């Protein structure tokens, strides 16, 4: 199923990526080439095959609900581009 | 005709275990050894460009601390005083960790990765953080946002990727060992291109806590070393359960050094034919087949076998890995850390930040992954790929009912030229043909140097059952000791 330019623009929005016109051109082409290669997979009959999301037979790795020390606030804020009153500062959200 | 040749061993080309022995016997101090390495780095680094960040002052401080502790008669770790390098996607507290991306160009982690902490406890000395393909996406290190690393065997060629800097540093004598990460072959393929040993442990063997995530069901950290003994030594230090990584296996860690025996008599080795077909360089195949004959001479029973779903591994991987990456890289939004461009509102900020912060290959994979997971396409692409993954794993499970290990070439070719594949993403992806199925199945695999083709190193890949790194080491060690393939180092642009 070939990818249209509109679909590329929609995906870019979902991925929160502004793309230039050249990038939209290039990605439409490249993604289509890659997706065409993926068509191979349709040749395989996977009826009744369980998907493997994870190779280890791990389930629900829990621990006791006991408070343990975490990253201190100052450390968490250290790498931030902008902070105010002990919080991350961002442009308006709504 | 090989480039370089057998050389008398310079200090910087000793193995890590030999260096550790000299240090323990006080034949050299940690400070002296570190100075040698720093001198070596000064000599060759502007040609090789393996490092994003060098930490000479910190290294000498650490070395001094080791020497003082040794003088006090303290019990020191197995790697005490041995200089190492770390791929730049491993968090090092207080030391810039960039993932070779503009997004994290100035980011300083507030904590150490689990493996970093373990290596510190073992006394290893950090000389620097290694260049990589941006966010570990690539097979040549040309996707580094900063500069490409060069292959020490031929400076016009790539070192492989994404752990290209780590492999090049070890091959060039700039560190005694390094850590890399492997999602689709990113330790093994550069190891193969640079003529060093590279191991991807079983998924879950080594904690991923502090490894910047690319594809969470595929990523593993592993050693790049000059010989198999070093590889076992480093894995011994970094393996084990970590409560901070809920995907790490709660299984005991065996004594890997005890597995280093020269004995493969009666071992059953499967040779999957799908790894020797079209798309594989003829000379590479020939060199690998000679290596397999050598394994037979050493007493193993080698037989052709088949992993019928092999050709589907690459397309399935290029759906699963980008899908997981699109999720993992959603956190880079300019809010809490890393690069930020201002915006008129928060979404505008995200979109500008991500447009500028990520390079083209990263954006390409995020786009691919987002598409594969989006409404209407999830079943056709991502879910389908996960079912194919089951079939790939089953092929291996069935093969391992009959064989102890499987052997293949590590990569279809030797190191290609810089710029050769940059314009063709699919051609670049093909470089991981032999390594990807292993990640999809979560198995352990090692690449060891087994010869040369067109004057460049060729790697032999050995694949074992889950958590059977011991057999990997035994086979690799036996081969290495019998062939002496590890005692060969490059001439770096005329500097021996």
Runs of chain A with pLDDT <50, length 5+? none
Structural class of chain A: mainly alpha
Number of strands of chain B: 11
- CATH-assigned homologous superfamily of the domain at 5-43 in chain A: Glu-tRNAGln amidotransferase C subunit, N-terminal domain
Give the total of domains of chain B. 1
The amount of helix of chain A comes to 25-40%
CATH fold description of the domain at 5-43 in chain A: Histone, subunit A
- H/E topology pattern of chain B: HHEHEHEHEHEEHEHEHHHHEHHEEH
Distance between termini of chain B?
A: 17 Å
Major sheet: arrangement of strands of chain B: 1-3-2-4-6-5-10-11-9-7-8
CATH fold-level topology of chain B: Amidase signature (AS) enzymes
- Number of beta strands of chain A: 2
Proportion of residues in helical segments of chain B: 25-40%
Strand order of the largest sheet of chain A: 1-2
Description:
The complex is a heterodimer of chains A (94) and B (496). Chain A is mainly alpha-helical. Chain A has a domain of 39 residues: Histone, subunit A, CATH 1.10.20. Helices cover 36% and strands 4% of the residues of chain A. In chain A, strand 1 and strand 2 form a beta hairpin. Chain B is an alpha/beta fold and 496 residues long. Chain B has an 11-stranded mixed beta sheet, with helices on both faces. In chain B, helix 7 runs antiparallel to helix 15 and helix 9 packs across helix 11. Chains A and B meet through helix 1, helix 2 and helix 3 of A and helix 9, helix 10, helix 11 and helix 12 of B.
């Amino acid at each position: 199923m070939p990818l249209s330019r509109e679909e590329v623009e929609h995906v870019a929005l979902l991925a929160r990526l502004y793309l230039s016109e050249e990038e939209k051109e290039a990605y439409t082409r490249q993604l289509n080439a890659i997706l065409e290669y993926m068509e191979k997979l349709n040749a395989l009959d996977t009826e009744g095959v369980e998907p493997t999301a994870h190779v280890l037979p791990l389930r629900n790795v829990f621990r006791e609900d006991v408070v343990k020390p975490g990253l201190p606030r100052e450390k968490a804020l250290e790498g931030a581009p902008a902070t105010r009153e002990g919080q991350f500062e961002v442009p308006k959200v709504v | 005709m090989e480039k370089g040749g057998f050389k008398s061993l310079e200090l910087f080309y000793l193995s890590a275990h030999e260096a550790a022995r000299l240090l323990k016997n006080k034949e050299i101090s940690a400070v002296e050894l570190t100075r040698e390495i720093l001198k070596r780095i000064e000599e060759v680094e502007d040609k090789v460009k393996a490092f994003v960040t060098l930490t000479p002052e910190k290294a000498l401080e650490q070395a001094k601390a080791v020497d003082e502790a040794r003088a006090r008669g303290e019990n020191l770790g197995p790697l005490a005083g041995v200089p190492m390098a770390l791929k730049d996607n491993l968090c090092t507290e207080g030391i810039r960790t960039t993932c070779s991306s503009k997004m994290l160009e100035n980011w300083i982690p507030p904590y150490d990765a689990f493996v970093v902490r373990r290596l510190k406890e073992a006394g290893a000395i950090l000389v620097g953080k290694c260049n990589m393909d941006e966010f570990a996406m690539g097979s040549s290190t040309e996707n580094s946002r900063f500069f490409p690393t060069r292959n020490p065997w031929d400076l016009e060629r790539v070192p492989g990727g994404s752990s290209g800097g780590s492999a090049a540093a070890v091959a060039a004598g700039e560190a005694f060992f390094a850590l890399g990460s492997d999602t689709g072959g990113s330790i093994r393929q550069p190891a193969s291109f640079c003529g060093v040993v590279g191991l991807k442990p079983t998924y879950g063997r080594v904690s991923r806590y502090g490894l910047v995530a690319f594809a969470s069901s595929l990523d593993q950290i592993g050693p790049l070393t000059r010989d198999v003994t070093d590889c076992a030594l480093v894995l011994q230090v970094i393996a084990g359960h970590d409560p901070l990584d809920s995907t790490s296996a709660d299984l005991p860690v065996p004594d890997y050094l005890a597995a280093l025996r020269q004995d493969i008599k009666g071992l059953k080795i499967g040779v999957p034919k799908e790894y020797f077909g079209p798309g594989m360089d003829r000379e590479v195949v020939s060199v690998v087949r000679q290596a397999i004959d050598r394994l037979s001479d050493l007493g193993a029973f080698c037989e052709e076998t088949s992993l019928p779903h092999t050709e589907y591994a690459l397309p399935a991987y290029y759906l699963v890995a980008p899908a997981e990456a699109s999720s993992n890289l959603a956190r880079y939004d300019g809010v809490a850390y890393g690069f930020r461009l201002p915006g008129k509102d928060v979404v505008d900020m995200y979109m500008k930040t991500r447009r500028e912060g990520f390079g083209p290959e990263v954006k390409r994979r995020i786009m691919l992954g987002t598409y594969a997971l989006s409404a209407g396409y999830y079943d056709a692409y991502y879910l389908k790929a996960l079912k194919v993954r089951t079939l790939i794993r089953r092929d291996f499970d069935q093969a391992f009912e009959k064989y102890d290990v499987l052997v293949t070439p590590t990569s279809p070719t030797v190191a290609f030229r810089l710029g050769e594949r940059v314009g063709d993403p699919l051609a670049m992806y093909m470089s991981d043909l032999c390594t990807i199925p292993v990640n999809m199945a979560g198995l352990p695999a090692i690449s060891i140097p087994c010869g040369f083709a067109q004057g460049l190193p060729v790697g032999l890949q050995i694949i074992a059952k889950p958590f059977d790194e011991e057999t990997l080491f035994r086979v690799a060690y036996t081969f290495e000791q019998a062939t002496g393939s590890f005692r060969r180092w490059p001439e770096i642009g005329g500097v021996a």
